[in-house]
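Whiteboard transcription, Tuesday session. T.W. wrote the C-alpha cells on the left side:
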C-alpha cells in the first residue's frame, strides 16, 4: 500500500505538466497563469546608467506605469533571456487598470511579423491611412515568392545602400571616415559575389534570421537578442576563394586579418537595415514613425493617449529607428500629438548596445530582473516552485473551472490524507506542499542549472528542474524507485561535496540490494542537510521506499566539509571554513566528479608508491628496491607514474607494472582517502573512524603490493616463458652482431655472448658487406641495439641471477642452459610475455625475415667452382704457363697482363676453395637449416675467400678469351700445338681436382661443420 493510502504515492498526473509549465509565459491560460504566478525580486533603478537601486516586487512596476509622465515615455523591463520578463509583462497586462482614454497596443514577441506589427497599430489608426498601408505591405510581402527571394533582395538592397550611403558625412574621426570610404567602395563586391553567396545567405546568418522574423515573426527557439549583423557575420572564411572575384577576395582577406574592420562593417550594415527592410517588405522605420505620428495626432483630437506594451523590443530590429523617433516625440504647443508611453521588455545587452542615447535619456525608471551581486539576491526557491507544484496536482481543467465561478485557486493538499506528515517532512509554502522536493533538494537542483554567475533564471527552473522531474520521474516516484540514477547525474553539480566516500559507506546496509543503497545515498545527498551521513525524516524514507540506517543521527548539522567551488550566492550561504585537509577534499572531489589536479595526483601517487614498495620483499636475489622502481634501468618496473587513479594507462604500460586505483564509491577510493588523511594528520587516531579505516587501508595496501610483486618479481620456481624469450632474443642478437662465442658449443662461451653488450666487438658486419645493413639496423634500432639489449640483459639477470644489494653476484647457469635448450624451439610471441618483451621479439622477427633474401644474394656472390676445380694452385700454374708461352710467341693480345693474373693468383690462400664449397653446400641445404645455422652461414668469414677466387677467375677468363680470339686470327698456327697440350694438361688437372674435392665433401664432415 502507498504511504498516502489509499491514494497513489505520486500526487500528480504527468500528462498535466506541459500544460501547466510551458516554455513561454504567453502559452498557459489565464487561470493557469494566475494559479502559478509568484513574485520575483526586481531591482528598481532610478538612473539607467547605475546598478544601484531598491529591491521591489511587481506591484512597484504597476505603480510606475500608472505614474509614468508623458515627457519620460520609456519604461524598460530588463533582464537576461529567461529571467521572467515575459511573465512580468503578462502579469502587468492582466493587472493594468486603463483609464477610459488610454489605447493599449500589446506587441507579443512570438509570431509577430511586420504585417502583424502593422495590424496591431492600425487597429487605432484612421481608416484611410490604414487601408493604404495595408495594401502596400500586402503587395510587398505577396510579391516575395519565398524566403530565399527575400534574402536575395535584402542582400542586394544592402549592397546598394552601403555603396551609396555608407560613407556619408557624419560625426566620425578621420581614421573612421577613411575606413568607411574603403568599405563603401569594396563591401558591395563581397555582398554580391556568387562565391560568398552560401555564407552570406546561410540559415544561421543575419540576413536569413532577419527575413524569417519579418515574414513570420520569432518562434520559441529565437533568442531575445538583436538579429542585426555582427563582426562574425562579415568575417568570412578565405581558405579557398580562388573562384571569387579579385575585389571580393581583397575585401574578404582584409576583414579576416583585421579586428576593427569587421566591427565597422557590421555597424554600417546595421545602419542601413531600416531602409533595406522598407524597400523589401514594404514597411520601414519612416513608415512606422509616420503612422504613429498620424495616430497620435488623431488620438490627441480625441483626448486619448497611447500605451505600447512590448514583450520583446528586438522584434523591431530593422524598423526600430522609426519607432524610437515616434516614442521620443514629446507633445508641445506646436505639435499636438497625444501622450505616448512605452513599456518594453528587452534584454540588458540589447538595451545597452543597440538603443540610442535618446531612449536612455527619455527613460522614466528601469526595472531589472538581474540583481547584481552585493545586494539582497535571495530567491525563495520553494515559494517560487510551490504554485507550479500545486497547479500540476490540481490540473488545468479544475483551475479553469474555479476561475469561471470566481473561486480561489484550489489547494490539492487540503484533501490529502498525509498532509501534516508530508508538510512537516518535505516542507510547504502557505499550505502548499513542495513534495517530491524539499527545500534542500530544490535548491540543489536549481543550483545545478544556474548560469556561470549563479543567477536565478526562472525559465531554467521551470523547464530544466520542475518540468523534467514532475514528468519524467513521476512513475519512478509512484513505483518506489526514486531518486533515480538519471536524477543524480542530471543535477550532480548542485550537490557536490555534500557526501564523502565515508559518508556513503555509512549509508550502506548489508541486507539491502545495491540499488536501494545507491538510492539512499542519492536521497541523503539531495534531500539531507549538509551534515554528511544521516537519516532523514521517517516520512521521507517511507515516501521514497528507502529504509533508514540504524544508528545514524537525524540531527541537522552544520557542514564541515570544504567547498571546492564557489557557492551560488542566490540560493545558499557559503559553507564554513574547511576542517579537513585539502588533500582529502581533493580526493572527495575526484571520487565524486572524476576530476583531479596534476599536483594532487602526483602527491597521492607518492604516498601510495612508498607504502606499496615498503611491503614488497626485496631480499637477496631480487636486486633491491631502486632497480625495480626506475623504468630507465630495466623492465618491467614500478615507478610512481605507474599508479593510475581511475584512468586507463596509455603508452608506457608495456614497460611498467601498473597499479590502478578505482574511483567512485569503491574500497580502493576509500583506502586512498584514508591514506591521504593519515599522511596529513600523522596518526590514525586523528582520522575520523580511524580504526576501521586503518584496517581497510592496510588490507588494500597488502592487496596492491601482492599484485605488483607478482607481476614485478621473477618466478624462480619454474622456467618462465619470458626467460626463454629473453634468452632467445639475446642469443639471436649476439649472433647477428657476431659476438665472439655466439656460435660456439661451449655453454660458458654461449652465455658470455648472450650477456655481452657488444663491447668485445664482433665481425657481424665485416664478414660480408651485404650483411652489414642488418647489423647496422640491429645496433641502432633492434634487439641488438645497446639500449634494448641492456634492457633484455637486465631482465635476464632479474630472472636468472643471484644478487645482493642490487648487484648481480652470479648467473644461474643451469637455468640459462635449460632456457637455451628451449629457445632452440622458440615458436614466437605468446600471451604470457610482458608487452616490452613482445616488442623486442617483433623487432627481431622483422630483422630475421630478411635472411632468405640475404641467402639469395650470397648465392650470387660465390664463384663457379665447376670451372676451377679443387686444386687452385695447379689451375693458376696452367694459366700462368699459357700466358708466358703466348708472350714468348709475341702473340699476347693487348689488354692482357700476365703480371696482373699472376698477382691475383698469388693472393689466393690455401683453403679458399674449401671455404667457398662449404658455404655453397650450406646454401643448397638452406631450407633445412636452423635459424642459428643460417645466421652462422651468413656471418662466417667466407666472403674474403670468395672474393679472392672471383678476382682470379675474372682475370683468367678475360685473358683466355683474348688469347682464344688471337688464335683464331693466327694464320700460321704457331701456338696451336702448345695450346692443345696445355689444354690437355689443364683438363687432367681439373678432373683430378674435382675427384679429390668430391672425396673431401663426402668424407670430411668436420670441415663443413
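and on the right, the sequence the group agreed on:
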Amino acid at each position: 500500500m502507498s504511504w498516502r493510502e489509499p491514494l497513489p504515492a505520486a500526487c500528480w498526473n504527468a500528462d498535466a505538466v506541459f500544460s501547466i509549465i510551458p516554455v513561454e509565459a504567453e502559452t498557459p491560460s489565464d487561470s493557469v497563469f494566475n494559479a502559478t504566478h509568484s513574485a520575483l525580486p526586481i531591482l528598481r533603478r532610478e538612473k539607467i546608467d547605475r546598478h544601484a537601486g531598491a529591491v521591489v516586487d511587481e506591484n512597484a512596476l504597476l505603480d510606475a506605469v500608472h505614474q509614468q509622465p508623458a515627457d519620460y515615455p520609456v519604461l524598460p523591463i530588463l533582464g537576461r533571456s529567461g529571467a521572467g520578463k515575459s511573465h512580468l509583462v503578462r502579469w502587468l497586462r492582466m493587472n493594468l487598470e486603463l483609464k477610459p482614454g488610454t489605447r493599449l497596443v500589446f506587441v507579443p514577441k512570438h509570431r509577430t511579423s511586420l504585417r502583424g506589427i502593422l495590424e496591431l497599430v492600425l487597429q487605432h489608426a484612421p481608416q484611410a491611412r490604414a487601408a493604404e498601408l495595408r495594401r502596400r505591405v500586402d503587395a510587398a510581402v505577396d510579391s516575395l515568392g519565398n524566403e530565399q527571394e527575400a534574402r536575395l533582395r535584402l542582400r542586394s538592397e544592402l549592397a546598394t545602400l552601403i555603396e551609396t550611403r555608407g560613407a556619408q558625412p557624419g560625426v566620425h574621426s578621420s581614421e573612421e571616415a577613411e575606413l568607411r570610404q574603403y568599405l563603401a567602395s569594396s563591401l558591395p563586391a563581397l555582398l554580391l559575389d556568387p562565391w560568398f553567396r552560401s555564407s552570406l545567405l546561410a540559415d544561421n546568418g543575419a540576413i536569413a534570421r532577419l527575413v524569417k522574423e519579418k515574414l513570420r515573426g520569432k518562434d520559441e527557439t529565437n533568442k531575445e537578442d538583436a538579429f542585426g549583423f555582427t563582426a562574425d557575420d562579415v568575417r568570412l572564411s578565405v581558405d579557398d576563394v580562388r573562384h571569387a572575384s579579385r575585389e571580393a577576395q581583397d575585401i574578404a582577406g582584409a576583414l579576416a586579418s583585421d579586428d576593427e574592420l569587421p566591427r565597422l562593417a557590421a555597424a554600417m550594415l546595421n545602419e542601413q537595415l531600416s531602409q533595406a527592410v522598407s524597400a523589401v517588405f514594404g514597411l520601414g522605420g519612416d513608415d512606422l514613425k509616420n503612422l504613429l505620428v498620424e495616430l497620435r495626432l488623431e488620438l490627441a483630437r480625441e483626448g486619448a493617449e497611447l500605451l505600447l506594451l512590448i514583450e520583446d523590443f528586438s522584434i523591431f530590429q530593422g524598423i526600430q529607428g522609426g519607432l524610437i523617433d515616434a516614442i521620443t516625440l514629446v507633445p508641445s504647443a506646436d505639435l499636438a500629438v497625444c501622450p505616448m508611453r512605452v513599456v518594453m521588455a528587452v534584454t540588458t545587452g540589447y538595451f545597452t548596445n543597440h538603443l540610442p542615447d535618446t531612449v536612455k535619456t527619455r527613460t522614466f525608471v528601469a526595472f531589472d530582473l538581474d540583481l547584481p551581486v552585493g545586494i539582497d539576491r535571495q530567491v525563495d526557491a520553494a515559494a517560487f516552485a510551490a504554485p507550479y507544484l500545486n497547479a500540476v496536482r490540481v490540473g488545468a481543467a479544475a483551475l479553469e473551472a474555479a476561475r469561471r465561478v470566481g473561486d480561489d485557486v484550489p489547494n490539492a493538499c487540503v484533501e490529502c490524507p498525509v498532509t501534516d506528515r508530508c508538510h512537516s517532512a518535505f516542507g510547504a509554502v502557505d499550505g502548499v506542499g513542495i513534495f517530491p522536493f524539499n527545500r534542500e533538494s530544490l535548491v540543489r537542483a536549481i543550483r545545478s542549472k544556474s548560469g556561470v554567475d549563479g543567477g536565478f533564471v526562472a525559465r531554467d527552473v521551470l523547464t530544466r528542474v520542475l518540468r523534467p522531474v514532475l514528468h519524467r520521474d513521476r512513475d519512478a516516484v509512484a513505483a518506489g524507485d526514486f531518486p533515480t540514477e538519471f536524477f543524480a547525474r542530471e543535477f550532480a553539480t548542485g550537490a557536490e561535496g555534500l557526501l564523502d566516500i565515508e559518508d556513503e559507506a555509512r549509508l550502506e546496509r548489508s541486507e539491502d540490494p545495491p540499488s536501494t543503497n545507491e538510492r539512499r545515498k542519492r536521497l541523503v545527498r539531495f534531500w539531507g542537510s549538509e551534515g554528511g551521513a544521516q537519516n532523514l525524516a521517517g516520512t521521507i524514507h517511507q515516501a521514497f521506499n528507502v529504509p533508514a540506517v540504524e544508528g545514524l543521527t537525524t540531527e541537522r548539522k552544520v557542514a564541515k566539509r570544504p567547498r571546492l567551488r564557489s557557492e551560488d550566492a542566490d540560493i545558499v550561504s557559503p559553507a564554513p571554513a574547511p576542517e579537513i585537509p585539502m588533500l582529502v577534499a581533493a580526493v572527495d572531489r575526484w571520487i565524486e566528479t572524476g576530476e583531479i589536479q596534476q599536483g594532487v595526483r602526483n602527491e597521492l601517487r607518492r604516498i601510495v608508491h612508498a607504502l606499496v614498495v615498503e611491503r614488497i620483499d626485496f631480499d637477496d636475489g631480487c636486486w633491491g628496491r631502486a632497480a625495480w622502481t626506475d623504468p630507465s634501468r630495466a623492465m618491467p618496473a614500478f615507478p610512481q607514474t605507474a599508479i593510475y587513479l581511475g584512468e586507463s594507462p596509455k603508452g608506457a604500460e608495456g614497460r611498467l607494472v601498473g597499479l590502478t586505483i578505482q574511483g567512485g564509491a569503491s574500497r580502493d577510493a576509500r583506502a586512498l582517502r584514508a591514506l591521504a588523511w593519515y599522511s596529513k594528520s600523522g596518526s590514525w587516531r586523528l582520522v575520523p573512524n580511524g580504526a576501521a579505516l586503518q584496517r581497510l587501508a592496510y588490507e588494500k595496501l597488502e592487496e596492491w603490493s601482492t599484485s605488483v610483486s607478482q607481476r614485478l618479481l621473477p618466478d624462480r620456481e619454474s622456467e618462465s616463458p619470458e626467460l626463454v624469450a629473453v634468452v632467445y632474443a639475446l642469443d639471436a642478437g649476439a649472433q647477428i652482431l657476431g659476438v665472439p662465442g655466439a656460435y660456439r658449443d661451449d655453454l660458458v662461451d654461449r652465455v658470455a655472448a648472450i650477456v655481452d653488450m657488444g663491447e668485445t666487438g664482433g665481425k657481424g658486419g665485416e664478414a660480408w658487406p651485404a650483411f652489414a645493413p642488418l647489423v647496422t639496423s640491429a645496433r641502432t634500432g633492434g634487439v641488438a641495439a645497446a639500449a634494448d639489449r641492456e634492457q633484455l640483459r637486465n631482465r635476464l639477470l632479474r630472472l636468472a641471477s643471484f644478487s645482493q644489494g642490487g648487484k648481480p653476484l652470479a648467473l644461474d647457469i643451469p637455468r640459462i642452459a635449460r632456457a637455451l635448450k628451449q629457445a632452440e624451439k622458440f615458436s614466437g610471441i605468446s600471451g604470457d610475455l610482458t608487452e616490452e618483451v613482445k616488442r623486442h621479439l617483433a623487432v627481431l622477427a622483422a630483422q630475421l625475415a630478411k635472411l632468405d633474401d640475404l641467402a639469395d644474394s650470397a648465392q650470387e656472390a660465390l664463384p663457379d667452382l665447376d670451372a676451377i676445380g679443387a686444386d687452385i694452385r695447379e689451375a693458376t700454374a696452367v694459366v700462368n704457363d699459357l700466358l708466358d708461352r703466348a708472350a714468348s710467341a709475341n702473340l699476347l693480345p693487348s689488354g692482357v697482363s700476365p703480371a696482373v693474373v699472376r698477382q691475383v693468383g698469388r693472393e689466393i690462400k690455401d683453403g679458399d676453395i674449401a671455404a667457398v664449397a662449404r658455404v655453397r653446400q650450406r646454401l643448397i641445404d638452406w631450407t633445412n637449416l636452423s635459424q642459428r645455422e643460417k645466421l652462422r652461414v651468413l656471418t662466417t668469414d667466407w666472403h674474403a675467400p670468395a672474393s679472392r677466387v672471383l678476382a682470379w677467375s675474372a682475370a683468367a677468363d678475360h685473358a683466355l678469351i683474348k688469347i682464344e680470339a688471337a688464335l683464331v686470327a693466327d694464320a700460321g698456327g704457331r701456338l696451336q700445338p702448345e695450346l692443345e697440350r696445355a689444354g690437355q694438361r689443364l683438363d687432367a688437372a681439373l678432373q683430378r681436382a674435382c675427384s679429390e674435392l668430391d672425396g673431401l665433401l663426402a668424407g670430411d664432415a668436420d670441415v663443413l661443420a
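Someone added at the bottom: Residues 465 and 979 are 115 Å apart (CA to CA).
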